[in-house]
Fold this sequence. Notes:
receptor, iron, 10% helix, transport, 6-stranded mixed β-sheet, globular, signal, Plug_dom_sf
Amino acid sequence: MIGASRLLAGAALAALVPALASAADVTTQAASDAVSAPAAGDTATDADQGADKNKEIVVLGFGRSRQVQSVTAADIALQTPGSSPLKAIEKLPGVQFEAADPFGAYEWAVRISLRGFNQNQLGFTLDGIPLGDMSYGNVNGLHISRAIISENVGRTEVAQGAGALGTASTSNLGGTIQFFSDSPTAVAGLKTSGTYGADDTYRAYIRADSGYIGNTGLKGYLSYAFLKADKWKGDGPQRQHQVNAKLVEDLGDLGSISAFFDYSARRETDYQDLTLNLVSRLGWKAAYRVDNIRPDYATAEAIARAYQNGTAYPAPYQNADDVYYNAGGLRNDYLGGITFDAHLAPGLSVKTTGYYHNNKGQGSWFTPYTATPAGALDNDGNVITNPSPLSFRTTEYSIRRGGVTSEATYETGPNTFAVGGWYESNSFHQARRYYGLSADTPDRSALDFQSNPFATQYEGSFDTETMQYHVEDTLKLFDDKLVLNGGWKGVRVNNTAHVTTGPLASGKIDAKDWFQPQAGAVYHLAPSVEIFADYTENMRAYVSALTTGPFSTTQAGFDALKGNLKPETSKTYEGGARFHAGPLQASAVGYFIDFKNRLAAFANGSGIAGNPAILSNVGGVHAYGAELSVNYRLTHALSLFANYSYNHSKYQDNVVNSDGSLYAATKGKYVVDAPEHMIKGEVVYDDGAIFGRIGGNYMSKRYFSYENDLVAGGRFTADASIGYRFKGSGWMKELSIEANVTNLTDKKYISTVDDNNVQVRADSSPGGDFDNPNFMVGAPRQWFVTLKKGF
């Protein structure tokens, strides 16, 4: 039977891969040649619980009135160790994931979208604690790859259309992604792993679980992970240290108390953004390998002199943005919290979490645009005697935020009533500074925090106060065949900016909407069949920063738009059906989204130059689509998962200037970076000894200009893993070996687009993108081998 199952799996994959690859080739454009309990308002069925007992790696959200799907720790374990938890959910319908490295962890290039909504329009939480919008240079949170070690993620839940009312987020216009940490084990143990792979990748992971301590209900774990890897192109290391700790005290009928602490120190050497100009001159294959030119400092200085003096650039370069010397990103994060889940009386419980997050960050760049002046100091405070035509530019960040979330739930008869709230105070500081460099020898590192600037371009402090509440009720009727839920949330976010240096705006602005309703229903047609529908309204609050949001423009610009600016809002209509019988899970959903007051910050010159943005309301977007998913367990060891997503998102308005003249003909154009078709498939095998997976992902073309004349072609990529668990005692006990290959077919393709702001059109006029570094390419085929040992 096992042999037949393997043969069937191979046949299915053999049919899937060529079909998807063929589809990718047809649509490829020249540019690419060149089980925590559900929230109140949702219900869990036996199908959910059964899936968990069978250790399904994908759960299709049975009993939910919204489109909700989950991947479990079993799925994350099949990814390359150290991969972002986001990479594990790219297989789900409606999820678009892009990265420039094999781990999906290089934050500048990581993008995740749901149904055409981009990353900063989604909501993200870890154990209910807000992570902000997880954008690079995040002003109100941190990236999940820093918040928790991937092996410690127990489950990830994706709501493609709308998150639960109690989700602690003010950016979730288009859905939520919620991460849940693993619980400490009941028995003491030690888990270790070591990984080596392409580009001298070294990674180590260790976790010690205490088990239950004595006769108490206390248990916990402490874990550490380290990653060091070279870039797949160019020169420079990627490094990260992480520590996670968690304690849980089981209080029996009274509930539980848990506490956690997460630490991350991340140092990333940047990959170079590419320009269409460079691709057109060098050709796609040559341009694909172009990167920052470290350690060639002499050529970087020659490029700077050519730009500053108006002379010829060193061949083959023709402008200052073709290549840079080096750049990097630094992030230190501390995140901690305490949760008290109190069972106060039969049917009555209150869950409260308090949290605090501290961040220090820096984005660094060796800039050819500004020379080091005479009298500038080096990092040690000494006067630089031989100034370079380059200087070292930083964008510096610090976050200090704390908050509390709480929800009370009361269940009586067929009703479950819930009320809750969230409060957060966030102090964010940001500055852009310039530091001196010596000629001939680079005496500053892109991966070190800097001292002794010679200039500050801008600096400011921002205070953001968030208050949110929600009320909801769930009603079960007709012996639980029909479940109705409804409620609303209200939110107010006050933003205050105080700019001490530079031309950018100070002031106050707020976004509030005290009534954002949500309603849904689930009807069980049969024990294995259910239909569902929901309606949700959401609002995205403004962001407080010098590099994004309403304060990123000039004071005059802010004063002019402040009285007329409206926050982005969305209305989502969704409905579908699910089927679960024996080894088969399937779901089908359709949706319509009415998105209003879309705000866009148009670039003013090269994105890297850091000029004040031009913020505009670019009107509305209408989107509709469908998602189909099938998960079939052929045998206890072999399962197949496949899905198809269709998304049709178009702008409803042209962009006009203040005098009414046409700025961009966007009406009827497709939303940028939103593929219309995605097809994904995966085969997973695990018989207890041999285990592995192979997955394919097809995405149709994407546009990365508002007028749709910049195109990233469709592409198909595949990843694979295979491993073996040894049997025996002593050193053979709990020992396994695993091999992973990413981008199995070594596809060359455009991955992340709009790194430096969405462009209007492809020409070289102001607002064009021909010379603007504005897209990344995907990593080539990479391999990794991992040894794991438990004690």
